[in-house]
Amino acid sequence: MRTLRREMARIWACVTDRSRGHLVLAAVVSLWTLAWVIGQAVAPPMTPLDVPRSLMSWADIPTGWLDNVTEWARNPDRSAVLGLVAIAGGLLWAAGTERAQFPAVLGWLAVLVAAEGIGYHPAVLRAVLAMVGFIAVLTLVSLPGKVSVMMNRIVLIPKDVIRAGATAAAMAAMVPLLVPGLAIVRLLRPYVTHPPRVPAPREPATKTLVRD
């Protein structure tokens, strides 16, 4: 359990380690995705564009162009293309790493685009199956490989493949929770006691001998 908490804390630190521009975009996608997911339980079926449509209607902003986009996306002729977009979203989820968090955000944007035409469950299911299937294929391909201590080439190691896949899945799952997590961290920051920082021991200075 302690190892799991440390791993989640490490992934959370990676998710929030972005430039200001990327963090703003990730926050917008986080709010949009979270409202869309919650809307499936509150007022199903809710499409991704229903979220900005509700806000714009509340602010008395015309939403006719959003209706046109929804009508275009729900054309049966585009369902196959949008299904591929959902699969691409799952592959983008699988491409997320500790140093490259942006693919997870792009993956959610792709799922939002696909879900506008084919619906919540088909889009999310295709994305999840694409991510899991990609990781499973890499795991199967890595099984016959032999790893020696003196490696001089790039190889697939089952343990590393599974670890990278779990990290990518966790980072993708944290995108909708980014803004709530930031709000909770900011709220609890004044009340949390941090352990004292122990300074790292200094290495003794090496003496140089000067010869005459």
Strands, count: 0
Rg (C-alpha, Å): 23 Å
Mean pLDDT: 86
Stretches where pLDDT is under 50 for at least 5 consecutive residues are: none
Number of helical regions: 9
Cα distance spanning the termini: 62 Å
Share of helix among residues?
Answer: 55-70%
- The shape is flat
Q: Supply the number of structural domains.
A: 1
Strand content: under 5%
Largest β sheet strand count, sense and barrel closure: none
Summing up helix and strand content along with how strands pair, one would put the structural category as mainly alpha
List SSEs in N-to-C order: HHHHHHHHH
Keywords:
212 residues, mainly alpha, 9 helices, flat
Describe it for me?
The protein is mostly helical and 212 residues long. The protein has one domain. Helix content is 67%, strand content 0%. It has nine helices and no strands. The chain has helices at residues 2-16, 20-42, 50-58, 64-73, 79-94, 102-118, 120-142, 158-174, 178-188. It starts with a helix and ends in a 24-residue tail after the last helix. The relative contact order is 0.12. The model has no long low-confidence stretch (mean pLDDT 86).
Entry summary:
The chain has 212 residues and is an all-alpha fold. It is built from 9 helices and no strands.
What's the arrangement of secondary structure elements?
Elements: H1 2-16, H2 20-42, H3 50-58, H4 64-73, H5 79-94, H6 102-118, H7 120-142, H8 158-174, H9 178-188
Helix pairs in contact: 1-8, 2-6, 4-6, 5-6, 5-7, 6-7, 7-8
